[in-house]
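INPUT
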Amino acid sequence: MKIARQFIILLVALPGIIAHAQTFAPDSLLRKEIHQSIKQRQINLMNALIFQNPSFTPGNSDYSYFHSIIIKGVDSLQFAIEQAPKVYFTEKSARLSRLSALLDYSIAAILSGLMKPNDLPNLFSAYKAIQVCFDQHLKLLPLIANQNAPIGLVMLETLKQSDFPDRSVCTSFVLRNLLSYAPDHLIRAMYEFPDANNVYTLLQLSARIVPEDLYNYSQASASALGKRISNSKDSLVQLINTLSGLPDGQRLMPFLDELFHHRLSISEIRTASASPDINLYYRLLVKTRITYLQRIPKHDTPVAMKSLEARLQTMVSHDYVHVLNALHSQPDAVRLKILNGLSPEELYELCVIGVDELYTSSYLKIYQRLFSSTQLGSYELLKRVGFDHFKRFLKMASAYNTLDDFLSRMDQQDANQLLHDFVAELNQSNSLEDAVDVAESYGSIRNASLRQTILSEVQEEVRKKSLNTNSSVVNIYDLLNTIFKTYEGQEHQDLSTLFGIPQIYRLQNSYLLDARTGAIIIRHFFYGDPDGRKAFDAFISAIKNDSWKIVKNDLWLKAVSLKGRSIVMYANLPLDDNTNKAEEAQEALTKYLDQQDIHPSVLIHRGHSYYLKNTLKYITVENKLIFLGSCGGYHNLNLVFKNSPSASVITTKQEGSLVINQPMIASIIEQLRQGKDLDWIRIWKEWTILFRKDSRFVDYIPPYRNFGAILIVAYNKLSHKSY
Amino acid sequence: MYTILQRVSRLKVQLSLVFIVFTLLVSHKGYSQTDCTSTSFPVMQFADRSNALTSSMQTDLSSIASQIKNHPDCRYVILGNGGTTKFDQEMAWLRINAVESYLVDHEGINNTRFIIRINVVQSGPINEVSISGAASDDSGPSTISEPSPGLIGH
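OUTPUT
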């Protein structure tokens, strides 16, 4: 009875309650909460943009533009919701919550890279139009079809809780659109919308385009999409679904195409995969890759090529390169055991796939093996591997000074053809990378006739280009032509003057002076391993004389010249390697130098190649001369020039050695102390005589032969000029 | 009369509060993205100076793998505590790889679903490797270079 009475009272009072809630504190509080959450999401969205585009910084025009879109644009949407006439407070809350969801999904889409910042204005406009469609009971498809796939997807996600008549058509449309626009995001979207009408068709297509994603989502077999995948009648979808349920599915996936076409069976792959001889599985991967490469020119793209490449990368890295690198101090019989039984093709793949991780010595050992047990010509080898990454291989051969040998193992005609392909189409590339490879390789070829071939190819491209009326773009071939002709002495031009790059041939003593102190500041980086300690001892011996005063603390030392040009050198002590004490000392020294406003113009790395990454962290634009005497320092030139674009750099392409490094460094310091300029051509002639008995010296590269670096600097300078 | 008005007023307030809670729940339901970071898995506790997976760790990893497979829209961070020495960092790298290799080669999970990370500053027990759901803005790598090749024998 009491309940009934209260119910009657409620019915009578309901309109008043609603009006109360709509007008007064409780309801305002609710919407205030949602407005607060929207405000937070506006900030989060702005942060997401900054996260994806670090160049967005407060004050710049992009930042201001998007700040306005996100803050003012969304504020106006909130305002419109609040001001909408004849809308109950519940509906207003729902609309605000939907706006909040829009921001949530936008943040996710920006962070995943699906949506670009420039999509936001269209997204917000489309979102505003949705309400009009809802109010007028219009279909949404025309609105959604007018947007790109990411915007369409974010709208669909936002409207998950809303009813609209053509939801199914819109979902199918957006997913289909996503397949062509951003296939990498398709399965993820299908996971959210597994009931789309076209789900089976899309699964069939995605099995051929993004089989790896389909594999991942097949594993969620209890999910709605997982069930659709299980129910698919498509044989490739079924195969992927089967593999995804096997414990060794990841070892089978690289061969998906072969399995699908019944050229390999699961048991055949397992025989290789489960064998204690890891070469068997690696061999199967390489063989399959080469087969795939032969199919691609015939427009027959193998399915799951990405899986094959990823597995090869992992295997090369973990099972071969890490072992070879780790055993660098062991005798060849121990170190190279892992390579026993590998064919030249398999060794070649180790090089081109392991390119970023191979130590110089590991590469050289593999290269020696490449031709040691066979009479195979190098061009025939390239044919056998389907010219897989041949530009990368030539670049490596150039960087490690084995290009001459490689080219000498093929007929002149084949070498000419190879170099023609190497040099072709450099202007079409979006980056300078290929051109830099050509420039660097040129300096490595000692065979004058092969160099002439490259130069002729370059000049032919220059001639073609001159016929082209569009000459506003800097022609890479023009630059290469100039650099190569100067090197050959065909043109007596000074690249410094021609390209406006200072100090290529001669580093002036005064150029290295610190204006504030009037001294040349040199910094050495030592490490705590036995070789690092030896290098440190050699350094100390060289300056323990009446020309230098050495002051030392627990972490680092300072050596000041007492005669000649004022030179101040700083060097960290080679402290305990296992606990990174040398690196800590470097940190402490850096802090001290920063505090004292001291900026070294000369930086010298005194450690093995695996310490180089650490030294490179400290390179700044103030470093005008950089000496990287470790093995393969040449391969890190791009990192050096990133931080100090016009530095003069001395590197070696192969093995760095204390017996060469120490005299070179001592000679540089001594000439600076005597107030002399560093005339690299003269100095290099002297060093060539000094080190004539040490074959390793030919791998050291003077600043004026860093053709790749010269090309980059020249290109950038001239590009800016042409704007 | 006064009592009735008081009751009606109290009821109005109560209903309004109920309505607020209800609306909040309804309005936000379904909008939240998958929160991958809320996942919690058992920590792998390795023996001193060892990267061998014990059978109990393998059992744990199999159970973890089932959960990972059920959330294909998440990535997972495999984190090793590297400590302050090169040996500890190298050991952490070897342990992380042992865990990842098991999940990939024995449980069939794609390695792109993992983010590999070594704590270079000791923030937990040296012998531990943990697995947790990655934040949506975490785009860390699936592999990282070996910190000190050769320090611990292959």
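end of record. The mean pLDDT of chain B is 80.
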